[in-house]
Amino acid sequence: MSERPFSQACENNKGPILEILQQCLVPGSSVLEIGSGTGQHARYFADHLPGIRWQATDLAENLAGIESWRVDYAGDNLLPPRELDVRKPIWDQDLADAVFTANSLHIMGWPAVQSLFRYLGKHALAGSQLLVYGPFNYDGSYTSDSNARFDHWLGLQHPQSAIRDFEEVDGLAVAAGYTLAEDYTMPANNRLLRWCRSA
Ligand SMILES: C[S@@+](CC[C@H](N)C(=O)[O-])C[C@H]1O[C@@H](n2cnc3c(N)ncnc32)[C@H](O)[C@@H]1O
Predict the structure, then answer these.
(1) What is the distance in A from the centroid of ligand 1 to the CA of 106?
(2) Which mutation among 4, 20, 59, 84 tests ligand 1's pocket best, with the greatest number of atoms within 8 A of CB?
């Protein structure tokens, strides 16, 4: 087996994120993860939330890496990863009881973020949750010097990548039928935003 992709950030944030997921997710429900990256989160959350059916997705080029974290998983609640590019989503079925994404909105360009929310607006289930982890700006300001440095670095990597404004993302969520339920403070100047869609 080729070496698994690895993210130190995932190792650092998976415990604090799990604590929130344990509070929010109801056993017997399903999660669609968008932009699963290495697949570490999917494996860890499926393992620690055995009552939740976890569907990892990402761009085609990341699926083999995600599968490498899943292949020796003993449980049956971690599904094989599927391709999902939010710029041209190919699934037109109803989505899961919760949609989760971590550290993806500042990587994909703003048109892709808009496309993601249009997609959720069309296909997210009534009563479902949306959980988004990552850094956000508030009132047009960084919440820390380290986020300001990170945003500068992001812009150098890709001109379309940037820390998003909470208010702009919340506006997209509201247009997609969601209402903000919680804005959790997370370690390292990150947030975990939880929206609920009207039942
Ligand atoms: C910084 S990584 C985060 C990965 C993982 N969620 C984590 O927390 O480590 C950003 C992820 O967003 C994904 N991504 C970027 N553009 C995307 C798009 N248009 N549709 C779906 N996923 C996308 C990337 O492939 C990558 O896996």
Answers:
(1) 9
(2) 59
- Ligand 1 centroid–CA 37 distance in Å is 5
| 31 part of a folded domain | yes
Where residue 165 falls among pLDDT bands split at 50, 70, 90?
very high
Residue 3 lies in a domain: no
Q: Structure pTM?
A: 0.97
Q: How far is CA 129 from CA 21, 88, 141, 171, 182, in A?
A: 11, 22, 27, 16, 11
Q: Is 35 in the pocket of ligand 1 (CB under 6 A)?
A: yes
What is the Å distance from ligand 1's center to 57 Cα?
Answer: 9
With H, G, I as helix, E, B as strand and everything else as coil, classify residue 89: coil
Joined together, the tokens standing for residue 174 give 């509201």
Cβ of 87 closer than 6 Å to ligand 1, yes or no, is: yes
Per-residue pLDDT tens digits for 75-125: 999 999 999 999 998 876 778 999 999 999 999 999 999 999 999 999 999
Residue 1 resides in a domain: no
Q: How do beta strands 178-186 and 190-197 pair?
A: antiparallel
**Domain interval for residue 166:** 8-197
